Amino acid sequence: MTVGGLNVSPQAKNRADWAGQGQLFVGVNYQPVDRSPGQIKLDIACMKKAGLQVVRMGDLSWDYYEPRNGEFTFEAFDSVMDQMQAAGIKVVLDIGGSIAPQWLHQEYPGATLAKEDGTALYPARRYMVDISNPDYRRLLHRFADIFTRRYGNHPAVIAIGYNNEMGNGYRSFSEPARQRFIGWLKVKYGDLPVLNKAWATQRWSRNITDWDQIRMPDGSSPNERYLDMRRFWSDAAINLLKDLESIRQNHAPSKPALSNLWPDGPRLGFDWLSSYRQYATHGAFGYYATNPLHGAFETMMMKGAMSAPVWFNEFQAGGDGFYGEKGRSRMLSYLGLLNGGQAVLAWTFNSHLGGEEQTIFGLLDHDDTPSWKLDEWIVISSEFQTMQKLGFPREMNPEIAISYSWESRQAADRVKSYYTTPYMDHKHNSYAPLYNDNIDVDVINIGHENLSRYKLLVIPGEYLMGKAATDAVRNYVRDGGTVVMTASSAKVTENNQWYNTPLPGNLSDVFGLKTHEFYNNPSPLTGAINGVEFKTSINFHEVLEASTAEVLARFSGIEGSPPVVTVNRFGKGKAIYVAAQTQPSVLQPLYRQLYQELGIKRGPVTPEGVYARVVNGRILYVNTNRKSVEIDIEGQKKGVLSGKSWSGKLQLESNGVEVLE
Asked: Where is each Glycoside hydrolase family 42 N-terminal domain found (predicted)?
């Protein structure tokens, strides 16, 4: 079909809620605050000549628009917006609220962060603001309201974003923040006896008899209250985003919301996968992954269970102290398409002369000389015009889901002496065999999604599983679903206390077993699953005590040959438990057995580091290796990108891509 004169993916006719109604977009991040009017004019001409279709602007400088409290100056940005529209370049309009102006800190010192000792922390770097402070929230609301009312329906605007990288902000230890935390606890627990039980304060003389005895937890605090502190700041972030979303709905409801939020930022963070539908139309994030598999997992994590394609609001062209690698951005852009992407926006157009990112190298060098990277992005833009006629962006309908819980990650990171394999390693290790078999997978919070759409649910090392999650698993299996759970899962409750029931907590009957003992073997564990031998690289294992469960496979190198995989019939479904910690060598043969049982179709067979998807009868191949590879193909095919004919074998160079038909 045709939208705005462009041929787009056929599914676009049913996707008016998608940004661009199904077009692909190649563009850049751009900061007019850094540029003179003459430079802006030249920059836009350069973008247009390069075939770039979209820019993301507005994220860096609130005081560019409001230099003093209540004094708004939009004339310069009006001109930029109008020039973008005249050039046919669309705009992702970011509300730049993550960086409060200096005047705000001066006039409202409560917005300034406080250290653990209560002293003020001068906002020398970006994102240094207390997002729970009511004055900050009020002034951000005012700015966002005026900004969105002015530009939300500008003809150049294609989407709106909120508070860039808010998840990488900071927590404050000020007295007002402490009082807000106490207020949050009162709402959550109601009275002190309930709080004391949730926090296990009977130990070590920690019993709380007055709300004012509560301090803002820090890294040394007990696990229960530390998790509640992280939840408090997560709720503050989510509530702020919901407020900005209400402004968009009021002034620009037809413009989708797609924001580069970095919800897993290490300093603040928030629970994206339990809340994204309240303020996002598309998953979006900054793609800077050096490992393609990790980047693919993060893409799926930001997509959640949304059908809308992902936007890479920032996309690596160079890097911090890294000028770039020829062909790498093009390859990764195609990998983004394979992973359900719709847009790639280079970070950044012109390399910054100052600030924290002056050694992240953009498409233009510091003296405005176009680099070879601009030429590469011209190629990407041209080729994506072809790809959007071939079924891209692709709509994904995964039959498999992997669990991810922000709360569980926070809890697991606190007990590294027990939880020895890092949380994200569990996730990546469960994902790798599926991704290498070229199968689409959703990454979801299982307590907040409809699980019935999936044939297989994988729960890798999910240390904290509260009632919502365990009830969801129980109902899913009872109603006919198949679940695979690995060691270190369902150990603690939503209060971050160990279950006092047989483990896995609240699920022992579903899996037909219990587990108490666990050991770290001095040498690799071995065995065979479905006739395929395995050898572990992570030698931690649990001892499974089966009741109604059937043993599918046993360890062969341990006394007594204890079970490594069990299966239990529960209701109409099956619950499979893996005694080893999550790792590809154990999961791959199990997955491949389940493909056949569950009717899950494996994707094209490819060598290591090469990924492929079938889209509208054609196959997209992406070689992420830095070496050439040869791929077996059926019969004779034509390369859409290269124009070459291939028979029996496809040769892809380093970072090479091809579409065969």
From this structure: 30-371
